[in-house]
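Look over this today:
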Amino acid sequence: MKWQEVRKLYPDQYVLIKILESHIENGAEIVDEVAIVRSISDPKEATFELVRSKGDTLVYHTSNEQLSIAIRVGPGFRGVV
């Protein structure tokens, strides 16, 4: 399901989603396809679910026009990954 479709089905809500397809653009992961796990009405529960999420599962609010995730590069020593 596209992000715009999710926004229409769940307006102004938090949703727990699973990323199915994405691409990298300008240092961010842009999500193309998602699967809805469930909607979350309570902001505290959304925070709890976000902290528990792993891998390709995350919580996002549908007020955002685009689903993008900033890519952070962890600090490291030269020559050591």
Notes: The first helix runs from residue 3 to 9. Helices lie at 3-9, 43-52. The chain has a mean pLDDT of 90.
